[in-house]
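Feature request disguised as a bug report, sorry. It would help if multi-protein outputs had a clear separator. Right now it looks like this:
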Amino acid sequence: MFHADPFVVAVALLAAGVVGSLLPVIPGGLLSAAGVLYHAWAAGTPGPVAVAVLVTTALFAVAVDWLGGAVSARVGGASLRTSAAAVGAGLVLAVALGPVGFVLGVFAVVFGLEYRRHGDVRRGGRTAAYATVGILVSAVTQVVLTAAVLAGFLFSVP
């Protein structure tokens, strides 16, 4: 049977969480939360307050991941249907082209559907730009949050 040091497993999960924050299909925040919870269960550290703060931060990263692109698209004027279609197309293109495919897919679908809806190139472009910037800001925010969870874990574990 394989026995691994809980600290090594937790740090691996936390590092995967940071990297996963940059990739559209990998749940970085959930990996970070899993790392903290695993170590708390297996080794008894960090303490309950640190676990609560770190897991809450990781779950906030999950919320940013799930809602960031949709919220920015809505702020830019996209319909819910457009936002959903854009995320779907982005995920399909992410399989073929990676993170760049996700961003390009969202931009293209938001632009195309909003142009068809309003018949205005500028409005479609503005809405697509909002959605794309929102995705990029969401990714950066997730990286910062999951990196903070990793740093907080390393600081709180003796």
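(second protein starts here, but nothing in the output says so)
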Amino acid sequence: MITTLSHAAHLLPMINFPMINQEDGAMPGEGLTAVQTFLYFVATPIALFLVIGGLAWITSAPKKDKKEKHDVINSID
């Protein structure tokens, strides 16, 4: 019977943890701060989505005609 979590960890030596198994020659850099992580992975994608969505909305808005045109194809007199 497993009595502690550390005992269970020793029973499963074949689990590949990403922090343990790195490629040969890998030199990980410094970790990101919480603010950097938020900016890179939350704020920046949201800002890009809003900018691109706003540009698409502005460019696809219906155009206002200055003078009224008589359209023979779409109207019946």
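Even a blank line would do. Unrelated, but nice: The mean pLDDT is 79.
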